[in-house]
Amino acid sequence: MYTFGFFCKIPTYEFGRNSRSSSKAYKASPARRGSSQFQLRQYAEATLGSGSLRQAVLLPEGEDMNEWLAVNTVDFYNQINMLYGTVTEFCSPQTCPEMKATDEYEYLWQDSDKFKRPTKLSAPDYIEHLMNWVQTYFENESVFPSKIGVPFPSDFPHIIRTVFKRLFRVYAHIYCHHFEVITQLGMQPHLNTSLKHFVYFAKEFDLIERDDLGPLNDFIDRMLTEGKNK
Hints:
The chain is mainly alpha-helical. Helix content is about 50%, strand content about 0%. The chain is built from eight helices and no strands.
């Protein structure tokens, strides 16, 4: 099991017996049965079941890279939404007034709609805007086509890089500010596996820069090094 013990300051929380997640339900559009995306998702799930994350991220032979990026992006979105949902009770505008990963990294929100300039938001507000922003892409058939034969846009890899960079910030916030909650809920193995899978995939397809990993750089290096030695 990987431990997370560098310079993130982790507050202490008290749990009630009937603690529940109050997260908003973000639902990604599922791949339609019979579509290439549905078949790729079945392949991805079967490969993950083999136990090798490094093998699971590789593009299946003869498959379209954009299709593979699309399927996995939807799955990572769902994983991150589930993991964040376990800590939303402890992530409020009062406990997390800024979207941070340690005091050294603060993330400002910007989009092409309401926030045209980088804007300071609380962590839950930032993450809500992020999830809705990604959901908008999923629901746009010109960006995430669900029918066979409909092409992806020429800038699709660029869109996915931006999505990955922003989704990673949710991992960073959870690790640096809610890790004790995750540990007490018994979710640490799930969080570590999800992050490891995410990073392997991002590195395989050049979707995220090392600088974007911010405060988790050293932890990720140790995680991947230990993974190679097993």
